[in-house]
Amino acid sequence: MATKDFVVFDSDSHVVEPPALWEKYLDPEYRILGRHALWRQEGRTGAYLKVNGEMFRDSGNPNLPRHALWRPGMDWDAIGALDPDVKHPATEGASDPQARLADLDAMGVDQALLYPTWFAEGFFLVRDPDVAYALARAYNDWIADFCKAAPERLSAAAILPLQNMDFALEELQRVARIPSVRAVFIRPMFLEDRYFNHPYYDPLWAELERLRITDLARSVFRKGQGSARAADRAGWWRRAVCRRQRRRRPDDNVYRRDAARSSAGADTGQLARQPHVRRLDPARLYSHGALSRDEGRRRAW
């Protein structure tokens, strides 16, 4: 077997949240409300993500789990060779830490930073702030237990309930004490018509800087329609990426103050294919100072 004298770090690795997250980790008083606000249903003939009581059905082949189909050693030809008429199970390593470690070994990966999947797609659309807080605690506790299987190899990006800034700061201070939490996941979008350079988020940036925790902004783009709130806006989805360190304006105090803090942007692929991701309008972004006018005008299909 070949050996290497360097460390391989996977900075963009996803887990798939299992039903146990809702059934075991979610506070009992919120289990009914939590399943109404955000729930993933996997069935024999189809699947859907439920957000605020509204179902968003997978439009692809139900035999091919879009969220966890790849396995170590597979390439595009192997994926294309899968029989679409046969039900293929999801990759075990998506939800089981021991199986994930075996996958990392097979791929020669030493360490991985883990992101959510269903929470990435639907959590920030949850309307009820109390339920969002409960869901965030449940996810963060579950992913912390996941990483305990090998804390020297597995680390996590936590979820914050931005629906209520007091809740978000409380949860940030809590997860900062969890050794495996190295970052927080933030989806670039307007929440209550406020983008992330709005003064509402000032306490968040200050606390992240104080705690020296990285925020990971994940961008989305899609052709099609948006969430229920934006379902009447037909047309192309446009790419909208907020990377505060690289695109901040010198006259923007929020961005300027963040110079000492670590920030990152990541892939545009996984969320982009889902019909419920909120439409991000570059015209609004550059008017709020998040993107320059030229960047806002460009489309990424």
Description of the structure:
- With 301 residues, the protein is α/β, with parallel strands linked by helices.
- The protein has a single domain, classed as TIM Barrel (Alpha-Beta Barrel).
- The strands form two sheets. The protein has a six-stranded parallel sheet with strand order 1-5-6-7-8-9, covered by helices on one side. It has a three-stranded antiparallel sheet with strand order 2-3-4.
- A hairpin with a 4-residue loop joins strand 2 and strand 3.
- Helix 6 runs parallel beside helix 7.
- The C terminus is likely disordered.
The helix count comes to: 12
Rounded Rg: 19 Å
Structural class, from secondary structure content? alpha/beta
Termini separation:
42 Å
**How many domain modules?**
1
Biggest beta-sheet profile: 6 strands, parallel
Whole-number average pLDDT?
A: 77
Overall shape: it is globular
Q: How much β-strand is present in the residues? A: 5-15%
Strand order, main sheet: write it out. 1-5-6-7-8-9
Keywords, please?
three-stranded antiparallel sheet; 32% helix; alpha/beta; 301 residues; TIM Barrel; six-stranded parallel sheet; 9 strands; disordered C terminus; globular
